[in-house]
Design goal:
The protein has 194 residues and is an alpha+beta fold. The chain has two domains: 117 residues, no CATH class; 56 residues, no CATH class. The chain is 46% helix and 18% strand. The chain contains six helices and six strands, in the order E-H-E-E-H-E-E-E-H-H-H-H. It has a four-stranded antiparallel sheet with strand order 1-6-5-4. The chain is elongated.
């Protein structure tokens, strides 16, 4: 994170704004996993009134370069003080629709940066979970692959949801979450087939 040399006035205004912000409600359904979440519009909608009332503005810029999409988000105060955060994601080289992937990734980054910078909670709290950052086993990869096939799921869309290039890149936590969601999808399909 970057910031102006002095942020005293910004920090004071931000603290006041954060005390006024209420977490957004989940208003959108993930078509792949059928779960609900607060979309970017909902996240920004809960931030704007408190930001404006406290002399704060929030801007986000998207850039695409060298096969990556980057989003820079900045909170500015009327005093000229500011803080900025930038994040980038690589667009898959095997993408069938890189422009659509760029847009999806930019929206994802914008939403998560807004939540992070304003201390907004709009998603499931997973920080107490085992994140298992080393990737999953070959057996787990085969199991997920079979589940994707049996539910007629789009593997490319699935990988985009988790922002990974292959099933092997999933963390242990992501594997457990994906397995549960695919099991729910399969159960729903079986119920609809009756």
């Amino acid at each position: 994170m970057e910031q102006s040399e002095i942020i005293k006035e910004l920090a004071t205004a931000l603290a006041k704004a954060q005390s006024e912000i209420r977490n957004p409600g989940k208003n959108t359904k993930n078509t792949f996993f059928k779960n609900e979440y607060a979309d970017l519009t909902s996240v920004l909608g809960c931030i704007r009134p408190a930001a404006s009332a406290n002399g704060l503005s929030f801007i986000q810029a998207v850039e695409a370069q060298d096969g990556c999409v980057s989003v820079s988000s900045q909170i500015s105060h009327g005093s000229g003080q500011w803080i900025r955060q930038t994040a980038s994601l690589k667009i898959s080289e095997t993408s069938k629709n890189p422009i659509q992937d760029l847009g999806s990734m930019a929206t994802y980054l914008k939403r998560y940066q807004a939540q992070s910078m304003w201390a907004v909670c709009a998603d499931e709290d997973t920080d107490a979970q085992d994140l298992g950052l080393e990737g999953i086993s070959d057996g787990e990869v085969a199991h997920l692959d079979a589940m994707l096939s049996s539910t007629n799921s789009n593997k490319s869309a699935f990988l985009n949801v988790y922002n990974v290039e292959s099933l092997k890149s999933l963390t242990d936590y992501q594997y457990k979450k994906a397995k549960k969601q695919l099991q729910q999808k399969k159960a729903m399909q079986a119920k609809e087939a009756k």
